[in-house]
Amino acid sequence: MYVLKVRSHSREELVEFTGLVREKLKESGQREGILVLYVQHTTAGLTINENADPDVPRDMLHALRTLIPQHGMGFRHGEENSDAHIKSSLTGSSVTIPFQDGKLLLGQWQGIFLCEFDGGRERQVIMMIR
Amino acid sequence: MYVLKVRSHSREELVEFTGLVREKLKESGQREGILVLYVQHTTAGLTINENADPDVPRDMLHALRTLIPQHGMGFRHGEENSDAHIKSSLTGSSVTIPFQDGKLLLGQWQGIFLCEFDGGRERQVIMMIR
Amino acid sequence: MYVLKVRSHSREELVEFTGLVREKLKESGQREGILVLYVQHTTAGLTINENADPDVPRDMLHALRTLIPQHGMGFRHGEENSDAHIKSSLTGSSVTIPFQDGKLLLGQWQGIFLCEFDGGRERQVIMMIR
Question: Bridge partners of C97?
Answer without folding.
Answer: C35
